[in-house]
Structure to design on (506 residues):
């Protein structure tokens, strides 16, 4: 097995191959057979495609195993051939690769919703993938590429499976988005970004779904919200139906013209997906050879864009005290109506006995209460006491989250506890629809961006906010390792302090 980790570290750009499926069909493979079945009935054709991509300049090739799982093959009547097809796919790629080319085993999506109440439960999906992964790993590829992913849950299952099987090889995860920047199963790109921040893989990226231009737009969003390196494998444009066949019409020169922009936004792996051919890969290689300064120029441009002085709002009094004295805070629930005199009386007493800040919950247990932003502002103006605003993702979309946070900052509310929020189903409006564009980890990242002078999409906001960002952790959960892993991600995203549930001793 070759050491891709070292190659990834030292290489400036790594070129992957292009499409296998559309190339097989172009070369006469029958349409009434699964693409992956070619590994058995026409191995020479598969070998010829691999070799043509290597000759065109590919540093890495992918196995013809994308859809070779039991669920997909069952539709064709080949469920019993999962092991044979996957093993043959890896062997053929390794035979073509020789010593100089890396082999990545391709694993695609099941393509169906996964979970209780659906056709495929989580356990069933795990079993389907386990069978494919084990057969692939027996042939020792140089890495795995989970591509054209349509669901966070699928990737989550696969990554957990890799850990359970003690698989330690390079892993690339690529999602596929449509023109509206969501997967075919309806998962928004920002929700996917939130998920990708918390997984431990070597490269993340984009493939399929779109042509080179739309893929660039998605890459820009990735680049603004995630750290690279990224992998990019677009389609050769959008297909047209000609004589009952899907024909991809984007030429290789136009396709390769995006290379500089891809590199500029953090791509280190560039290849192709549906409709691309060895000619497209050769054009990518030619562009990189011809413009020897392309990488340095791209990096310099990005660095120039990032050099900006950010003016920051004044910090809260609470933030000045953190780490310097022992702080007392008390949590209160806002009233259910607009009568707030009793709340003010109680808070006044708390201030007199030395409480530093008031925690104000945000419609706890999904029950309607007065806005915590409004109450925090009133307490600050009338009683001169700061609050820690509980702020949930449940009721606000991505625009609303940022709008209300900016409003809170303008009102002088600068201490925020980021929470995902209780589901509406447990509250007094169970028919209400939850939003959850992001989780609490993503909310922390949003506030951190606002603190650095931009919104979630990196649009400048002028004077940056100065939120003191709090997060919650529950030490009483059964799966404490998962809770601590989430806490780690929150800290990495910019959390300043942590609040826990009460802990009692007997």
């Amino acid at each position: 097995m070759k050491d891709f980790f070292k190659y990834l570290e030292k290489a400036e750009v790594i070129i992957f191959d292009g499409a296998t499926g559309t190339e097989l069909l172009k070369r006469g493979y029958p349409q009434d057979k699964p693409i992956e079945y070619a590994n058995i009935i026409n191995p020479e054709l598969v070998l010829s495609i691999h070799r043509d991509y290597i000759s065109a300049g590919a540093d890495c090739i992918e196995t013809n195993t994308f859809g070779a799982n039991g669920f997909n093959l069952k539709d064709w009547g080949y469920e019993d051939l999962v092991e044979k097809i996957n093993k043959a796919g890896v062997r053929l790629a390794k035979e073509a690769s020789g010593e100089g080319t890396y082999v990545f085993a391709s694993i695609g999506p099941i393509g169906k919703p996964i979970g209780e109440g659906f056709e495929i439960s989580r356990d069933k999906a795990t079993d389907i993938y386990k069978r494919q992964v084990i057969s692939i790993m027996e042939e020792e590829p140089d890495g795995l590429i989970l591509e054209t992913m349509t669901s966070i849950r699928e990737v989550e299952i696969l990554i957990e499976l890799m850990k359970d099987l003690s698989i330690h090889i390079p892993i690339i995860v690529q999602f596929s988005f449509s023109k509206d920047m969501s997967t075919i199963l309806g998962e928004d790109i920002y929700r996917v970004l939130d998920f990708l921040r918390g997984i431990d893989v070597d490269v993340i990226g984009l493939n399929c779904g779109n042509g080179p231009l739309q893929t660039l737009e998605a890459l820009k969003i990735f680049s603004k919200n995630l750290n690279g390196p990224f992998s990019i494998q677009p389609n050769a444009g959008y297909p047209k139906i000609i004589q009952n066949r899907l024909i991809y019409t984007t030429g290789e020169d136009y396709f390769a013209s995006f290379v500089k922009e891809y590199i500029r936004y953090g791509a280190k792996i560039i290849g192709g997906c549906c409709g691309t051919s060895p000619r497209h890969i050769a054009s990518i290689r030619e562009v990189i050879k011809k413009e020897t300064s392309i990488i340095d120029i791209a990096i310099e441009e990005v660095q120039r864009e990032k050099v900006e002085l950010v003016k920051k709002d004044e910090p809260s009094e609470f933030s000045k005290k953190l780490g310097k004295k022992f702080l007392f805070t008390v949590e209160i629930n806002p009233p259910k109506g607009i009568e707030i005199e009793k709340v003010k009386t109680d808070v006044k007493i708390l201030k007199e006995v030395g409480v530093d800040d008031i925690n104000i919950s945000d419609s706890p247990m999904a029950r309607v209460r007065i806005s915590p932003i409004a109450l925090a502002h009133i307490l600050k103006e009338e009683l001169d006491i700061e609050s820690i605003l509980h702020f949930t993702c449940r009721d606000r979309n991505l625009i609303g989250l940022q709008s209300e946070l900016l409003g809170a900052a303008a009102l002088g509310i600068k201490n925020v506890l980021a929470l995902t929020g209780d589901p509406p189903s447990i509250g007094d409006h169970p028919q209400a629809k939850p939003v959850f564009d992001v989780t609490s980890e993503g909310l922390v990242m949003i506030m951190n961006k606002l603190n650095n002078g931009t919104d979630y999409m990196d649009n400048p906001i002028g004077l940056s906010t100065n939120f003191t960002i709090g997060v919650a952790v529950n030490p009483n959960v059964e799966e404490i390792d998962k809770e601590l892993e989430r806490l780690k991600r929150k800290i990495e995203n910019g959390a300043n302090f942590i609040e826990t549930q009460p802990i009692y001793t007997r």
Summary: The domain at 317-500 is CATH 3.20.20.220 (TIM Barrel). The chain is about 40% helix and 15% strand. The CA atoms of residues 357 and 386 lie 5 Å apart.
